Structures are given as structure tokens and as C-alpha cells.
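Why does residue order matter? Because the sequence determines the fold. Keep that principle in mind as you read this record.
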Amino acid sequence: MTQTIPIQFDGETLHARAGETLAAALIAHGVQQFRTTASGQPRGVFCGMGVCQDCLVEIDGVANRRACMTKIEKPITVRRGAHVRPLPLVTASASGSYAGSPEPEIREPALLVIGAGPGGLSAALLAQRAGVQVTVLDERSQAGGQYYKQLGVSASEPGVAPPDAQHRRGAALIESARKAGVEIIHDALVWGAFEPKEFIATVRGRSIRFRPAACIVATGAYERGWQVPGWTL
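Structure:
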């Protein structure tokens, strides 16, 4: 069976399955409210894919972490997100104690692909087979994107359905890309793009500057919420 990992949520000990997201673990324990807005309104999971920012929580003292994008790998301490808590960088800047961040690592792949979904992986695979050095960045902990999203926990777990044909096609594409020599970097959030071809990504807390000869942006699509009276922006 999959290992369970204890997590602290607002002082209560919960147990999560290794590999699942924090959002999935909290929902499994009946937690619906993840944060509070400036006006005191409760918010919880909406999109489940890192876009809406409604599931922001504090993890081990770091604010504004997306619960749906945080994979459970070790014991963590979680608090509901609160609008009144300032970001550490803002606090440090205001007090004059922020000394800046270290110079980021610089990497220069021949081809940088942003997004490890079906389109990004397919492009990376073809380019690598043609002799091009390819690096793929994806903000998730697993490749596949939304369409080929892979299981976070083992299919042998009770209540977990086995991989279907779509999962298997995705796994085969990921494996083909890796075997061809494609470098896939997970947990990579690309937050800056500059002329002529320079991109900055945060990878597990450290900054990396990419200067590729060419770049393919394959960030995919996401659902758009239907606007109805009473909803927030």
C-alpha cells in the first residue's frame, strides 16, 4: 500500500497518501475552506489545476502556496491562507533587511519547450530525434499536462482506478521522450520572458535563467469559469 504521511492542518494532524496533492488530501478529510479573502469570504478548490489561485495556503511558514499544485512528499505544517499575512519578501523589503537574491544559474539549451503536455512532449521528442538538445519545463510534478495527466498515487491503492487508455498513451509518450534524451524539469514556474530569447524560471525555490537558441511555448489550455451574478472576479 502507498505510504501515508502526517500533515498538520491548523493544528490538527491529518494523514495523506504519498504522491497526492495537498488539496486532494484536505478534501479527503472533509476540508472545504482553504483560505479567507480580505472581506472575510471563504475560498476553496475551484479549478484544481493551478490557475484560479483560490486554494492558496501557508505551508511551513511560506504563504500563497497552491494546494492543488503541492505534492505530498514529506510531513508539512499547513495553515489556511489569510489575506492579512504579507509576503516574506514584502516584509523584508519594508524593513530594509532584504539583501536581494543570488545570481541565477544560466543554462543555454538548443531548444526550450515550455509545457510538458501532449503538444510540448511531441515537439520535444521530434526535435530530440532530429539531433537537437531539448529541455522541457513544466510547473507540475509530473509530465503529461491536463490531457495526459498521470496518476499521483499507485493504481494498486484501494479505490484508485487503474490507468485507462489515455493514461497509458501519455505514459508511453513521456517514456519515449525520456529515452530519446529529452530533459524534463518539473516544478518549474516560468515567470519572466525577455528579449531576445531569455526566460527565467523558479525551480523548487531557486531561479534559473534560460537562454535557448529557440523556444516553443506549449502551455496548453484551461477551463474558463462561467460568469454568473454573485460570483467574484
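The chain has two domains: 4-95, 105-217.
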